[in-house]
UniProtKB/TrEMBL annotation:
It holds the Pfam family UNC-93. InterPro entries: Ion_channel_UNC-93, MFS_trans_sf, UNC-93-like_regulator. It is a multi-pass membrane protein. The keyword Glycoprotein applies. This is UNC93-like protein MFSD11. The lineage of its organism: Eukaryota, Metazoa, Chordata, Craniata, Vertebrata. It comes from Molossus molossus (Pallas' mastiff bat). It is found in: Membrane. Belongs to the unc-93 family.
Length: 349
């Protein structure tokens, strides 16, 4: 995880240039292939292949998320970006529901996970990932008027003939400069604080919390299948939040702040209940698990309820961060485009 997110963070500096040259659709396809490769590594894992694939998926993740953000932006406007971000997040997190639903039923009653069980899961996931990667080619390409508006699109056609052809290196350098300018704006710097928090809580519920649930012997023979059930309820919380806030964003007169505040409250309750319910040695328990208790007797119902709260709170943050970040990007692109058109028309006159 440290390798993936370290490379991911560093790669984000160059990914706008890559997407500008290659285009969002092809960028998503190429990144998807590396995701499939990373999943396939777990069919027969080796230390060297695992770490090497972690480096490649860190680069691919940066390209994929940048391309997806670009694709979401150019297919949205100021009025639809909130709705589209919510729908995107709900669709993205639906994988948590279906994948973990299989794990819950397939691993129910098992205290050890065999090699056959592991291979079955990761072969299926690799095939699904490859199919999903191919489906990137079905994403529509927006018309110019969807991005600029009807008034500007006609002017753009007049200027397009007179615009000098930019080579790929110029596009890459321009995209890099624009991304740096956007990163140091006041709003982006303020958003980075909340974004950093979402990274911490993502690491917790995607890796630590499932490990804790699977290590509590008090849960009996269901402890391993509860990992899948926990993932299902995290997914339900994510889908519920994404769908709800996506549908309500159009009629939300109070803005994004109440949704973010709701996320803070939901996560506060979730983390406090986890603190009371989970033994302190659960994250570092040996293979045999732990028989310790926390401040209350570990409860399966409380553990799964906390999973739902973790997913719901995460969707509160990410739907609003996604729509706000894309809105800022779209506004910056729109302003630069209009300025360019104005200067070009003056030259023509």
């Amino acid at each position: 995880m440290a390798i993936i997110y370290g490379v991911f963070s560093a790669s984000n500096l160059i990914t706008p240039s890559v997407v500008a040259v290659v285009g969002p659709q092809l960028s998503m396809f190429a990144s998807g292939l590396f995701y499939s490769m990373y999943i396939a590594v777990f069919i027969q894992p080796f230390t060297w292949s695992f770490y090497t694939a972690s480096v490649f998926i860190g680069i691919a993740a940066a390209v994929l998320w940048t391309a997806q953000g670009n694709c979401l932006t150019i297919n949205s406007d100021e009025h639809t970006i909130g709705r589209n971000s919510g729908i995107f997040w709900a669709l993205l997190q639906s994988s948590l529901f279906f994948g973990n639903l299989y794990i819950y039923f397939a691993w129910q009653g098992k205290t050890q996970i065999s090699e056959g069980d592991r291979r079955t899961v990761f072969i299926a996931l690799t095939v699904i990932s490859l199919v999903g990667t191919v489906l990137f080619f079905l994403i529509r390409k927006p018309d110019s008027e969807n991005i600029l508006g009807e008034d500007e699109s006609s002017d753009d056609q007049d200027v397009e003939v007179n615009e000098p052809a930019q080579n790929n290196m110029t596009k890459a350098v321009d995209a890099f400069k624009k991304s740096l300018k956007l990163c140091v704006t006041k709003e982006m710097l303020l958003l980075s604080i909340t974004t950093a928090y979402t990274g911490l809580e993502l690491t917790f519920f995607s890796g630590v919390y499932g490990t804790c649930i699977g290590a509590v012997n008090t849960f009996g023979t269901e402890e391993k299948s509860l990992i899948g059930l926990s993932g299902i309820f995290i997914g339900i919380g994510e889908i519920l939040g994404g769908s709800l806030f996506g549908l309500l964003s159009k009629n939300n007169r109070f803005g994004r702040n109440p949704v973010v505040l709701l996320g803070i409250l939901v996560h506060f309750v979730a983390f406090y209940l986890i603190f009371l319910n989970m033994p302190a040695d659960a994250p570092i328990a040996p293979l045999e698990g732990t028989d310790s208790s926390a401040y209350i007797k570990p409860s399966k119902e409380v553990a799964i309820f906390c999973s739902l709260l973790l997913g719901l709170g995460d969707s509160c943050f990410n739907t609003q961060l996604g729509s706000r970040g894309c809105s800022l990007t779209a506004r910056a692109v729109y302003t630069e485009t209009v300025t360019f058109l104005h200067k070009s028309l003056l030259k023509i006159k």
